[in-house]
C-alpha cells in the first residue's frame, strides 16, 4: 500500500507530466499555425512528431508509475502511437486525406486509452476528470477527422492544431488541479502537526 510520501511523489510526477504535456502541445500548436500551414515540409515533420511525442510521453509516465505491466492502457498507447507515427510518415508522402484519416483512427484509440488510464487513476489522484473529458473529446474528434478526410478542405495541420490546442488545455487544467490539491493537502498536514 502506498505511503503518504509515495502518493505525494506520484502527485508531483503527474503534475509535472501534465504541465509538460500542456507545454509541448501549446508549442506544437504555435509551430503548426506559424510555420506548418505555410510549409509542407515543416507540416510533415510536425505531423510525424505529434504521435511520436505521445508515445514517448506515455512510455515515460508508465515507467515512472510502476512500469508497463502495471499500466497496460499506457503500454498499448505507446504501441498505438508508435505505429501511428510510422503510418503518418508513410502517408505524408502520398495523401493528406490519408494523414487525416490515420490521425482520426489514432485519436479514437488514444482517446479511449487515455480515458481508461484516467479512470484507473481516479481514486488515487485528483484532476482525473479533465483527463476523462480529454480522452472522450479525443475519441469524438477522431471520428470527425475520419469524416473530414473524405472531403478534405484544409491541410491536416490546420485541422489538427485545434485538436492539439484543446488537448493542451485539458492537460493544463489537470496540472493546475493537481498542484492546487497538493498544496491544500500540504497545508492541512502542516496545520495538523
Automatic annotation (TrEMBL):
Q: Does the keyword Transmembrane helix apply?
A: yes
| Keywords, ordered alphabetically | Membrane, Transmembrane, Transmembrane helix
What span is annotated as the signal peptide, if there is one?
A: none
What residue intervals traverse the membrane?
12-35, 41-63, 75-92, 98-117, 129-151, 157-180
Pfam families xref list: DUF308
Q: List the InterPro entries hit by this protein, alphabetically.
A: DUF308_memb (IPR005325)
Q: What is this protein called?
A: Membrane protein
- Give the species this sequence originates from: Ideonella azotifigens
Amino acid at each position: 500500500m502506498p505511503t503518504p510520501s509515495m502518493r505525494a511523489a506520484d502527485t508531483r510526477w503527474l503534475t509535472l507530466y501534465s504541465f509538460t504535456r500542456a507545454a509541448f502541445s501549446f508549442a506544437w500548436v504555435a509551430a503548426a499555425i506559424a510555420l506548418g500551414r505555410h510549409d509542407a515540409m515543416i507540416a510533415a515533420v510536425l505531423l510525424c512528431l505529434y504521435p511520436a511525442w505521445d508515445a514517448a510521453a506515455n512510455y515515460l509516465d508508465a515507467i515512472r508509475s510502476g512500469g508497463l505491466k502495471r499500466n497496460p492502457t499506457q503500454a498499448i498507447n505507446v504501441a498505438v502511437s508508435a505505429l501511428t507515427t510510422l503510418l503518418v510518415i508513410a502517408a505524408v508522402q502520398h495523401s493528406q486525406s490519408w494523414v487525416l484519416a490515420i490521425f482520426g483512427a489514432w485519436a479514437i484509440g488514444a482517446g479511449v486509452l487515455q480515458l481508461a488510464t484516467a479512470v484507473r487513476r481516479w481514486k488515487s489522484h485528483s484532476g482525473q476528470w479533465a483527463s476523462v473529458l480529454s480522452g472522450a473529446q479525443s475519441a469524438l474528434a477522431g471520428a470527425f477527422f475520419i469524416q473530414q478526410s473524405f472531403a478534405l478542405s484544409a491541410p491536416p495541420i490546420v485541422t489538427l492544431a485545434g485538436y492539439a490546442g484543446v488537448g493542451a488545455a485539458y492537460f493544463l487544467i489537470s496540472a493546475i488541479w493537481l498542484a492546487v490539491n497538493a498544496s491544500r493537502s500540504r497545508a492541512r498536514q502542516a496545520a495538523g502537526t
